Amino acid sequence: MPQTEYEKGLFMGFLIATFPQLVIDFLLFEVAPAINALAKFFNEPGIMKFLEDMQKTHPEIKNKGMK
User: Fold this and answer.
1) DSSP-assigned letters across all residues of 1-67
2) Cα(11)–Cα(18) distance, integer angstroms
3) CA–CA separation, 11 vs 59, rounded Å?
4) What residue segments make up the domains of the chain, in order of their start?
5) What is each CA distance from 12 to 4, 25, 47, in whole angstroms?
6) Please, which pLDDT band fits residue 67 given cuts at 50, 70 and 90?
7) How far is CA 37 from CA 28, 43, 44, 61, 63, in A?
8) How far, in Å, CA of 60 to CA of 67, rounded?
9) What are the tens digits of pLDDT across the range 1-46?
């Protein structure tokens, strides 16, 4: 770990300069595929039929997005 104030400053500068790229990489390679997989999952016709059947058999399940 950095000992002096100068080393701490260099380390913080390195983290600040590196952080935006880490965020972009995380969003591109982790978050986007997960959102894409969820979108594909809910576009399957069988899934929507299953959710509708669940709402009919279990009225306590409420999904405001479905009518």
Assistant:
1) ---SHHHHHHHHHHHHHHHHHHHHHHIIIIIHHHHHHHHHHHHSHHHHHHHHHHHHH-TT---TT--
2) 10
3) 56
4) 23-59
5) 12, 20, 47
6) very low
7) 13, 10, 11, 23, 20
8) 15
9) 678 989 888 887 887 788 878 777 877 888 888 888 888 887 777 7
